[in-house]
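Help wanted!
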Amino acid sequence: MTTLAALILLLTVHVAPPAPVDRSTTFSEVEPTPAPPTPMSVHTAPTISEVTTEDSRARNLEALKTPPRDPITAVPTPMPIPLQFPPPPARPARPIRWRVDIVGDISGLLIRDPGWLAFDYNRRVNIPGLTLRADTRIGGSRVFLGGGVSYRNFFGGGSLYESSYTYSRVYEPLLFARLAVAAVEGIDIFAHVGGGPSIVALEVDSTQFAYQRSVVGMLDGQGGVAIYLPKKWLRRRGASRVTGGLELAAGYTWRGDVEVRPPVDTEEDPIPISSASLGDLSLRGFVWRLGLFIRFQ
Amino acid sequence: MRHLLGTTMLALLAAGACNEFNDPYYGPRELLPPVTTHDGLVWVDRTHDEVLFVLPKSDELEVRRATVGDERTQVQWSAVTRDRNSVLALTVPASPKEEDVDEQLHRLAADGKGEPVVYDVQAPFTAAALSPDHRRAVLYFGTDTGSAPLQNANQIAIVDLTGTEVRNVTLNGFGGALRSVEFPGQLTEGEPAPILIGGAPHDIVAFLAASEVVLMDMDDPSLDQVAIPLGADIGFEPIRTLLRPGNPLYPDPALFVLSAQGAEVGMLTLLDEADGSGFTAQISLLPVGEASGDLVFYDSAAVPYLITVGRVSGSLVFTDIRTQGGFRVELGSAASQLLLRDASRDGVAIRQVVAWAPSGTMISTLDLDGIADSLGRKPRHLKIETGIDALVQLDNDRLLIGSGSRLYVVDLPSEQVTPLSSQTAYDPTASALVADKLLLGTAGQPWVSTVDLATLNPESMLLDAPITGFHYLTGPKQIVVTHDDAAGHLTVIDPTDPSRATSRSHWGFLLQGELDRK
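Answered by r_m:
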């Protein structure tokens, strides 16, 4: 929550107050031309020709005939020069044709299989993740199509009957396709479908230590809404290239069953030992996700 | 937007606050100690009201589950039948508030297959006596106080292990509380041994109570119980019985009752009731001179003897049960336990009595073929240098004695005592004799030792974990040692070739399928 607040604060600190005349701007809005700078007076030194008396003219002629002496110079006091900023160059409005997002998110997975409780005390699992995704506008419509990659992992720790202690960790790279509709600038309705390997590492620690790593398939489908700062709220308005926001999604994640039969970690030259199958573990269930993203567009 | 954000955060917090109240793996799991069956080991899982059958196969371990009772019941105890083909489990109400739940005995096949046989036994009995002929079990309270707030100490249940019948009976005695149950007539394992009383067969069970014995015919529930008072005034406390069938030397069967104290042995001569209502007992007390530790009977060519061993003097007392006359043979060493064996002298088969005492340093033997002649009463002695902690009769000819960090293998025919030294104490009861190989696996040690009794050469095999239990499976003829592990850890050893290369360990079998538990 702190992160969310910080990001929103960061993104809104540069927001210019919207001009009343800009309420009807579109994605390709042109920024208003800045006013010309105010003229300022320039102080200049007087010339010789401005001395008009005869004496002075004669002294001048005498002076021209005599060889020159070393001039006596004084350090001039610098005149204060007022600072002047150049006007920002007028940038053309950039229509949004593509978008690239960097997303940090936290997911909640509700695992239906009670067998998971052998590896954690709670069926609800928090899953942090990091995503890089991109999409592009389809024609001139409000529809964007793209995809991306994610990486996420989660872990759990529990016990079986308070005598055998368990630990689990799941690593998941995810490749997905994403379809988004910009209902209005600042709100996207989206859906994504993806999949990838789910690398499941499990440990059971009684008086023996048993460990296994399995790879199963994973499919993920989610839909949700992304809310981000529209260009018109940004300082550079239509020319802005960076925005940010948050997204909320829900869906279902399917993972293949994992047969839990961890081999026992043995010392050198052991008596051959085999492990029993503890059963199948199904790490699938409904998922929700809250993400914060920075968008380059 | 603010409203949407706030609602979202509230929903997330609510989801995070959802604790798990139905964790099937929460709390400790109550497992009763394993019992050894013909084919494997059986654990009772009291937490899940299940029986786990762990059956070693060639290279695998087969685990089966069977349900006993339900969530309203709890398994109070489990036992294996003497033939090791069945497992018994008594279920009682899980809570005193479960008023409509009856106590039931479940009999499950040792391989875990089939439906269990369920007996309504009416009381939460704490002990079971299994008949040597493998046909019956008698449930009783024994010396334990049961889980019921009020119980009938003389209530019993006679369970037919070959069928589905159960008889719930209260002993018709003289008020003494039941302490133990014995089957004195059944001297041969696995074989029915009805006692002929007046020509009629009776399968007699003896209930030993304070100062009295109650006899019952298990074959015929219609017959009267026979209650015999043994003299509360003389402090007669029956602790053991022995039944001598009738033969030409003494035609009526006699039940001998050993007392915890006193210089008499009770002798109950069993006689047929004239009215056909069963049998009765004629009481006599045989004076044996001092309190006895054990008793056996022996028939010489002309005399039916009762042999007792004096706990104080360590002498053998021979009593002619017809005349109550007798003689004493001084052993010259402490003795309180007896066993009879077959021996051979000059190619002639004879009977020999072996006497010993816990903590004693001698094993005495006495040939019985010439016992009628005082010149033949010459006991022989085998010295156990460090004393006897426990004695196991391996077979007719060999004894195994545990003595601190030493084991003694005693070969009785050759009168050879072989000490085996170890760094830690061995438990001789955790042993198995397979052909001529004696295998030992004492709890707490990581060794399984083998002694070739032909050469008396010991060898030891190192396991990967200390032993908690040593089991010999008579079906697959395998040694199974269990290790301390809540997930289940055991090692299967080939007794004919015990080595690390031929052994297999299995882990996690007590958790097998746990993740599929819904």
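OP: Thanks! One thing I noticed: The helical segments of chain A are 2-12, 54-65.
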